[in-house]
């Protein structure tokens, strides 16, 4: 039998593993919520510990927390931020409302480690108490949403450069593929010519817009409601406390965290979180569309479009020898689906608050953090293992452009829509190219036809082959 220690709270006593840095409230949560086996994102734990460290420093500076106790708490926090005791954060992401269970997990681990640093032992809360010292001036109701916003903001700081990397890689391919003429497709049917580089340039522009929106929404997460205490009124906090906490967090992270203008609003509303999730969803819709295009453009290699080839990253079939699949694009699609689904969970949770508090914050935090993490990783790998290695079949692209009946659109200005339509009908019936029919019918000379079908003229504003 593992050794235990007896701890007491307002509900009674309970045995806690002797070696554990968590305490009785965490132990209750472990027993009450064996739901998923999923623990909070490591960055969320770090964000919560940073909030606790900042609070301890602020309370020491204001003369509310004994220097000896406060320093022990900050030292314990620094150890955790340095990578120690990470296995002590054991509360499931699906837990009691507002996140009180995980909050107390943080408080208890910090208190027990601080007690050791003060010469005591785990469970000796006379030296450092989870509620009275580590949690001084705080409530789950302001500490949890503050940590949630700090975490989301820091994760976005990692995601934004990854989006920029994808944008840059697509732009590079746009330049590389710019001379390649191909057939555009609308309604999945042949359309007028376009350059492959133009398609990729459009992808890059889309990713750039998504990156801008992510950067914009990140600013919403910089408003922190710490200091609101239990109901957003600031009860049991020093008037200067909240500004000091935000100041420390801003200094440590180089992110302009600041006090929310209205502490009640910051506690009642999770608009910054739901808006961030919404922007991630919209980004997922766009990147999923681009991944779909990659899969379509590389379809084949003999019975599909096969205009581009994606890097082969692993065998594509357990039974068909030599088969290669668009694996990285498929992976990105699946991550996009998950991000979209996570946004629905965040949306439902965001509207589920009542009066002074939204108790659904744990599931919001879990889904937001998961979305940013998997999206960041997926986009990074898609960029490195797919986009940067894309190659194009220029001959095949041009062949499709030349046999496309929509090439006749370039004849409108010279022959008129009705006559051009007759050319298309004959080309399709006799399985000839538009150029062949035009020359056979002597509708244009070879020289005129060359000017009309000039790749640059066909893919830029202007009238192909127009006379000066």
Characterization of this structure:
- Helices cover 57% and strands 7% of the residues.
- The protein is mainly alpha-helical and 468 residues long.
- The chain folds into three domains: 4-136, Orthogonal Bundle (Fumarase C, Chain B, domain 1); 142-220 and 261-394, Fumarase C, Chain A, domain 2, CATH 1.20.200; 404-458, Ribonucleotide Reductase Protein R1, domain 1 (Orthogonal Bundle), CATH 1.10.40.30.
- The radius of gyration is 30 Å and the shape is elongated.
The total beta strand count reads: 8
Spatial order of the strands in the main sheet? 1-2
Mean pLDDT: 95
CATH topology of the largest domain: Fumarase C, Chain A, domain 2
Q: List the total number of helices.
A: 18
Total number of domains: 3
**CA-atom Rg in angstroms:** 30 Å
The quaternary state of the protein chains shown equals single chain
- The parts where pLDDT drops under 50 for at least 5 residues are none
Question: Superfamily at the CATH H level of the largest domain?
Answer: Fumarase/aspartase (Central domain)
Under the CATH scheme, which architecture of the largest domain would be assigned?
Up-down Bundle
Pairing-aware structural class of the strands and helices?
mainly alpha
SSE pattern: EEHHHHHHEEHEHEHHEHHEHHHHHH
Shape: elongated
Short description:
The protein has 468 residues and is mainly alpha-helical. Helix content is 57%, strand content 7%.
Give the secondary structure arrangement, pairings included.
Elements: E1 4-9, E2 12-17, H1 24-32, H2 42-61, H3 67-81, H4 100-117, H5 130-134, H6 140-176, E3 181-186, E4 189-195, H7 196-218, E5 223-224, H8 241-253, E6 258-259, H9 263-268, H10 271-297, E7 308-309, H11 327-350, H12 361-385, E8 391-392, H13 394-403, H14 412-415, H15 417-430, H16 434-440, H17 446-452, H18 455-458
Parallel strand pairs: 5-6
Antiparallel strand pairs: 1-2, 3-4, 7-8
Helix pairs in contact: 1-4, 2-3, 2-4, 2-6, 2-8, 3-4, 6-7, 6-12, 7-10, 10-11, 10-12, 11-12, 15-16
């Amino acid at each position: 039998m593992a050794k235990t220690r007896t701890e007491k709270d307002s509900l009674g006593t309970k045995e806690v593993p002797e070696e554990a840095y968590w305490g009785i409230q965490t132990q209750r949560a472990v027993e009450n919520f064996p739901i998923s086996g999923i623990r909070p994102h490591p960055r969320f734990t770090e964000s919560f510990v940073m909030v606790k460290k900042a609070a301890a420093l602020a309370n020491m500076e204001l003369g509310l927390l004994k220097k000896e106790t406060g320093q022990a708490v900050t030292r314990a926090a620094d150890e955790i931020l340095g990578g120690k005791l990470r296995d002590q954060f054991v509360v499931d992401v699906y837990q009691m409302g507002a996140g009180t269970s995980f909050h107390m997990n943080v408080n208890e681990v910090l208190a027990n480690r601080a007690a050791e640093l003060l010469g005591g032992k785990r469970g000796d809360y006379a030296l450092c108490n989870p509620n009275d010292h580590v949690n001084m001036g705080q409530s789950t109701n302001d500490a949890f949403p503050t940590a949630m916003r700090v975490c989301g903001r820091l994760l976005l700081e990692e995601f934004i450069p990854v989006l920029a990397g994808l944008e840059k890689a697509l732009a590079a391919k746009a330049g590389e593929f710019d001379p390649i003429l191909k057939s555009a497709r609308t309604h999945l049917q042949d359309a007028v010519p376009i350059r492959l580089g133009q398609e990729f340039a459009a992808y890059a522009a889309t990713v750039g817009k998504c990156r801008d929106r992510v950067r914009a929404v990140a600013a919403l997460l910089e408003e922190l409601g710490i200091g609101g205490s239990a109901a957003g009124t600031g009860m049991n906090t020093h008037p200067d406390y909240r500004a000091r906490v935000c100041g420390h967090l801003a200094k440590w992270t180089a992110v302009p965290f600041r006090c929310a203008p209205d502490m009640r609003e910051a506690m009642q509303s999770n608009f910054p979180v739901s808006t961030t999730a919404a922007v991630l969803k919209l980004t997922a819709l766009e990147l999923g569309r681009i991944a779909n295009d990659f899969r379509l453009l590389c379809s084949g290699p003999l019975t599909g479009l096969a205009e581009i080839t994606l890097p082969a990253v692993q065998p594509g079939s357990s039974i068909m020898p030599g088969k290669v699949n668009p694996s990285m694009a498929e992976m990105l699609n699946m991550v996009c689906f998950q991000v979209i689904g996570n946004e629905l969970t965040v949306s439902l949770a965001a509207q589920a608050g009542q009066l002074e508090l939204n108790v659904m914050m744990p599931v919001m935090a879990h889904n937001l953090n998961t979305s940013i993490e998997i999206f960041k990783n997926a986009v990074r790998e898609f960029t490195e293992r797919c986009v940067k290695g894309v190659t194009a079949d220029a001959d095949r692209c041009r062949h499709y452009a030349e046999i496309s009946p929509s090439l006749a659109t370039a004849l409108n200005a010279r022959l008129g829509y009705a006559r051009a339509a007759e050319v298309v009908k004959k080309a399709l019936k006799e399985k000839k190219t538009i150029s062949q029919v035009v020359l056979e019918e002597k509708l244009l000379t070879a020289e005129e036809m060359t000017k009309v079908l000039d790749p640059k003229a066909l893919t830029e504003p202007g009238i192909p082959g127009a006379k000066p």
